[in-house]
Batch of 2 targets.
Target 1
Amino acid sequence: MSKQYVYIVQSSKEITKCKIGVTDDLERRLKDYNNMTGKSKETVYQYLFTCEVRDMKQVENDVKDEFRRLREEKNREIYFYNKDLFEDYVKYIKSHKTFVKEIFIKTDVQKEEVKKVKKTTPSLEERGVTRKDLLQKAQKVNNDEFYTRYEDVEKEIEMYDAEIWKEKTVFCNCDDAVDTEDDRKTSAFALYFIRNFKKLSLKKLICTHFSGGIDLFNQGAKGYIFTYIFTKNGFKGLKDYPKGYTGSFDDPFSLKILDEEADIVCTNPPFSRAIDYWNIIIESGKKFLIISNFTNVITHAFIPYFRDNKVWAGYNRVDYFFTPKKQITQASGHWYTNFPIKNRPKYENMKFIPLKKIPAKYKKYDDNKILLVDNNYIPNDYKEPFAVSAYPILSGLLEKGYKIIQGEEYSYVPSVNSKQCFRRTLVQKI
Ligand SMILES: C[S@@+](CC[C@H](N)C(=O)[O-])C[C@H]1O[C@@H](n2cnc3c(N)ncnc32)[C@H](O)[C@@H]1O
């Protein structure tokens, strides 16, 4: 009878995930992975862990069950990966009743772990953390740990009149860490404003570092406030670690800065706290330029802000971010602001034509007899409410004589022939 193996494999391109699989031939399986994607310098699959077991199907099912909340894709055995989770997967597999022997474990993962355990991170038991806590944290972190690329900050900010920054204090309040010695440990927002401080004639830059989550910028576990000014002796940057300061945007120290010092808030807040963040920033009455989810304009918690003209889309969408490992990843973001937008280039995306000229495949009525239009078509002779996707709103529909007629109670999820469609927002010609 052939031997049975369990393995953890990872693609060099996707180091926040791994696959936990089973096979009766480790060598052939690895070859299959590498042939599947076409082995290249950028994408190489390698084993992180392999072992022999007596009943691979049983292990596979038990792993699925044990780590079901860590499965990145429900129908495949792809699991979230970080060092702690890896340690957990290996520990679980090795303690399985059908485990026979370890064959391979990637040594640098092990070494790094040993180093980490000794230096900074006690074991789960020592930390008093259960696996469940870790899973919850991993899932949350996964949503929040999208880091902005410098070019995206530059591209958006350069669309605005430079006058808006003159003599202003900019506040970057969502983990916009700064390391004056090392750009790689500095957030793109902080870096942009430091580099362009004089060009923009800024008065002050204040950035905060968040003490929770993954420490992407290697700035330690303590929240801090970094203040940057220009004096007659040159630039001066100072870090302050107020006692008990968490670095959270809703920490009392952060709220005080927002209230008393900030003129313009500029950052990419954590997606998981976007509702609270928008609430605080919009209520503060300050100017802002922030990145958030592309779909906010069709999500009920945010719709009233667009409806009441407290926020609108900035110029650009943001499709690429960095992972904590500084690898590029895709997510749908967009800039949002309350600064005026001049001659919005995206107006051109919209096609204002009479309803009957809209091609049939881009218009239909839902089960409530509400018209749904797609592909940026806008029926310019239609007086009743109709439902649109995020695109036209982000292209400036509300600046072209249309208003949102929907409250915060619900998102509009139309059904056509009892089949649910994508979420939309109800608008109407003014
Ligand atoms: C989407 S990332 C953006 C990081 C950085 N602003 C950038 O643009 O690259 C959101 C960051 O906010 C941090 N974060 C999470 N909760 C936070 C909070 N309550 N206050 C401030 N930052 C928080 C996350 O750890 C993460 O580093």
Target 2
Amino acid sequence: MIRLGILILTFFIISCGSPNEPTKPITSVLRGDLNLNDYQYEIADAVLYSNYLVSGNEVFTKGFLKQYKASDVNNDGVYVTAEDLMYMVKIIVGEAEPYE
Ligand SMILES: [Ca+2]
Ligand SMILES: [Ca+2]
């Protein structure tokens, strides 16, 4: 599923680019704010995260690239993993500190 997400992300980046236009940078996103409401590490973010892991890209409807970027909760450079979701749950219940 992660490979499919990376493949779709790569296709999206390639298909949106143009050699004559500068690539627009992704504006900053809050780590752990999967639903992009400016609040990190909410239960709603964890629910959305688990929905992504079950259903895939279709659940990131507010801005796929931003939501994808916000998903690296454990700050290991790997996006949308079960480990990120588990780390998010630990943050929510107070067992782990969030990364900046
Ligand atoms: Ca949020
Ligand atoms: Ca990660």
